[in-house]
Automatic annotation (TrEMBL):
InterPro entries: DD-CPase-like, VanY-like_core_dom, VanY/YodJ_core_dom, Zn_M74/Hedgehog-like. It is an enzyme of class 3 (hydrolase). Residues 1-26 have a biased composition (Acidic residues). Its EC number is 3.4.16.4. It holds the Pfam family VanY. One of its GO terms (molecular function) is serine-type D-Ala-D-Ala carboxypeptidase activity. It comes from Streptococcus moroccensis. This is D-alanyl-D-alanine carboxypeptidase. Keywords: Carboxypeptidase, Hydrolase, Membrane, Protease, Transmembrane, Transmembrane helix. The lineage of its organism: Bacteria, Bacillati, Bacillota, Bacilli, Lactobacillales.
């Protein structure tokens, strides 16, 4: 608005140069439009200045009014660059200065078995989370509910004992329902429920959040919006289909993991799972990311996929308690 205020007296001057008064301003303006009357260079200059100011204004608004947008544009620009090397160099340069020992970067999964962590817990909207992420969780939930008011928390912290109890229950159910051995039942259950010591929910840093109470049944457009806003609150969508080889866990549209804002933005911008991110941090800090495989973890990916397919056909109701 400032530019227009400044230009008002200039425009009046231009009009009065043509000999018009305020009363016959309209007539004077149309007169100056006729080709036989040369437009003053000053008028052209002012016009160009105005256009330039508007252009800069638009660029400024696009760049700074929406930090999410400007961040999202970076990887897009890189993707269109035909050199993977450039992206690789850029990602190495952007790697946050973090340590593998950071409390919010703890890695738990089928290949990273953990003992009970006993985190200090706080309740957020009916679920328990590590107290250190209670505020971030509440803020993320509130933001997610502006996307869809049906978004709610389903699960936060789950103790190792509870995980073990449920795991054993499912194994017993599968053995009885299918008349199979314990080993057979374990490989079956591992496809839809995390073995004891391998679930991120025992960290208190993971939440299941969806519009519905079933995994992978949220509108994918909403999942995409939640995944895009998650880094602003320190979360990432943890189990994407494209991450399965690294995570060892099938895609889940509702499982978000707190890793801190800096790590979350990096992982989202460069589209990588926590395992890949921590491998990079380890390399950069001269440390080693040691794997701690679960004895019952299904290491053969083909077995996991096969078991999943069977599960889809036979026990669809089990998706409710996935992970
Ligand atoms: Zn989960």
């Amino acid at each position: 608005m400032e530019e227009f205020d400044m230009l008002e007296p200039v425009l009046e001057d231009t009009v009065s140069e043509d000999g018009g008064t305020e009363e016959d301003e309209q007539a004077t303006l149309s007169e100056s439009d006729t080709p036989d009357k040369p437009i003053s260079l000053f008028t052209i200059f002012v016009g160009l200045l105005l256009a330039l100011a508007a252009f800069i204004g638009i660029i400024f608004v696009q760049e700074f009014s929406n930090p999410q947008l400007s961040r999202a544009k970076e990887p897009l620009a890189q993707a269109t660059t035909d050199t993977k090397l450039l992206t690789s160099l850029q990602s190495a340069q952007d790697l946050p200065d973090l340590s593998l020992d950071s409390w919010d970067l703890v890695l738990v999964g089928p290949n990273y078995v953990a003992e009970e962590m006993n985190p200090e817990l706080s309740e957020v909207s009916g679920v328990l989370v590590d107290s250190r992420i209670a505020e971030a969780t509440a803020n993320f939930l509130a933001a997610a509910q502006t996307v869809d008011p049906n978004v709610h928390l389903i699960l936060g912290y789950r103790s190792l004992a509870d995980q073990s109890g449920l795991y054993e229950t499912f194994i017993a159910q599968e053995m009885e329902a299918q008349g199979i051995t314990r080993e057979g039942a374990i490989s079956f259950v591992d496809a839809y429920f995390q073995a004891p010591g391998t679930s991120e929910h025992m960290t208190g840093l993971a939440i299941d959040m969806s519009t519905v109470d079933y995994v992978n049944l949220m509108d994918p457009a909403i999942t995409a919006q939640l995944a895009a806003m998650a880094p602003d609150y320190g979360f990432v969508l943890r189990y994407k289909e494209s991450y399965q080889a690294q995570t060892g866990v099938a895609a889940e549209d509702w499982h978000f993991r707190y890793v801190g804002v800096e790590a979350a933005r990096y992982m989202t911008d460069y589209d990588m799972p926590l395992e890949t991110f921590l491998t990079r941090i380890a390399a950069a800090t001269g440390t080693v990311l040691e794997s701690r495989p679960s004895s019952s973890a299904v290491t053969d990916q083909a077995d996991v996929i096969e078991a999943e397919e069977q599960m889809d056909e036979t026990t669809p109701e089990m998706t409710e308690i996935t992970e």
